[in-house]
Predict the structure of Transporter substrate-binding domain-containing protein.
Amino acid sequence: MKYSMNVLRRSVLMGGVALMGLGVAPMKASADELADIKERGVLSIAMSGQYPPFNFVNEQNEVVGFDPAIGTEIAKRMGLEVEIVTTAWDGIIGGLLAKKYDAVVGSMSITEERDKVIDFVGPYYNTKRAIFTKAGSVVTSVDQLADVKVGVTLGETHEQWARDQGYDINTYKGLPELLLELDNGRVDAIVNDSIPVMLAMKAGQYDLAMIDDPAAEPIGAGIAIRENNPDLAAAMQDALDGMMEDGTYLAIAEEWVGGDIR
């Protein structure tokens, strides 16, 4: 996929907007924040820390993975240090709008609904919705999901999709809990981005089967920032483009996800 400098998907925030169950208040336009960030010398980025191998907390209590590596490299190329903040996914956009951090580098799918209140840099990788069951499950088609318990992560686009289908769902904090609940039989199927679950399967952590979902389409994951920040968006995109061109991105992707996911 070719990456361009056209990273801003402009929208006007009018009134209170409900986003993934979160009430978001109107915000006043402000000056671009890049100068303030450079004066601080630190780029603060948020993620859930619950989405291995993209972002998770290791045994040394460090937040590691593909997302932190990408965010750290972007900050470095902007001449900045990085601060990583972990927060619950269902409130992560609210935290961004409340200026608790500068950006979300946490595998956030770029959607029309989110684009109403934030802007995106990227995408920096692509994935798609996937449905998984335990190997040998009697659930083998999307049509059967209406009659079983479905697990999703709270606040993800997959939660809204499952609700729109009318499924009986349980919600969880992140992928590790989601996989554990499937393995323990508390849910019959889970809905998640395909890549991290397939990597867990490849590593032999779980014996799962993927259900064919013909309606699923590829979707880009982007870096979320507050609106009205064209200079910040351009600086971050410049850094991302440079990583793509000089091989740094591919090296990070190979380390954490085993190959190019652009």
Residues 17-23+30-127+219-257 form a domain with the D-Maltodextrin-Binding Protein; domain 2 fold (CATH 3.40.190.10). The two ends are 6 Å apart (CA to CA). The chain has a mean pLDDT of 90.
